[in-house]
Write the structure tokens for this entry.
Amino acid sequence: MKRVIIGGLLLFTGSLISLSIILAAALYAPSITAWSGSKLWYTIFGAERYGDEVVQSLSLGFPFIMGVILFVIGLIVLVREYFIKD
């Protein structure tokens, strides 16, 4: 039961972090004037700065990846607890 709570908490936290960053990027993306690749992913991860140009991204790549990692770890804990009984 303890592992189910831990897995559920990790899954919930990871999904909350990742989805809130995606929502923030979706709301910010229409105001970007120059980007390369997908506009949504550019908003989240950004690009290298060249000279004096202003980077118009949120640069939230690291927290987004951490949210995805937490989500995957929580999912693994829950699946393992569901299928493998001690």
